[in-house]
Amino acid sequence: MTEADSHLRATADAYDAVAALYSELFRDALDDQPLDRASLAVFAELVRNAGGGRVAELGCGPGHVTAHLQNLGLDVFGTDLSPVMIDLARKAYPGLRFDVGSMDALDLADGELAGIVSWYSVIHTPPQELPRYFSEFRRVLAPGGHLLLAFFESEGDPVTVFDHKVTPAYRWPVGDLAALARRAGFTEVGRVLREPHETERFRHGRLLMRTQ
């Protein structure tokens, strides 16, 4: 097993262990987050205006964001490393498709997708591994396809590891994350930073990118 495979297995195991609690805590997470809903709505509008097509939420967890994207009019499915999370998502949203899989090796044809949402799903990826994830995103997106990334922003610091409650994660400078995506063949459409609420520790970032 390679170091990357070991990391993926550890992340899947960590989320399997807390899946039920995580699902309960985050089921309604978007309800009091208007900026988050706005970011998803802009993404959905851009995908629809570009002609629509299949959209993947990669790292979908218990499926609440996937379901929200469907409500925004998208033809969407979810993928996650954690089999327990996928089981919960299938039970909660039986009308949607959810698959177990890894974001760095998608069982999709080149150019198959019109959009990808990665909602806090690259935060656990070691920085040296992240370029190949962006390369895989670029591979499966059609020309003009859109990518929405949600992550924790480092607030002036370099890439910083922190003690995420499930498994260690990384906070990124928004400019550095955008530069990685550009090197993989993406063009930036826009970015959003929101300050943490009283129950949160860090600033949150959203990057909206488009394939060149």
UniProtKB/TrEMBL annotation:
GO BP, one annotated term: methylation
UniProt keyword annotation of Phosphoprotein present: no
Source organism: Actinomadura keratinilytica
Pfam family name, one: Methyltransf_25
Keyword Methyltransferase listed: yes
Residue stretches making up the Methyltransferase domain: 55-145
Protein name in the entry: Class I SAM-dependent methyltransferase
Top-rank taxon: Bacteria
Keywords: Methyltransferase, Transferase
GO molecular function: methyltransferase activity
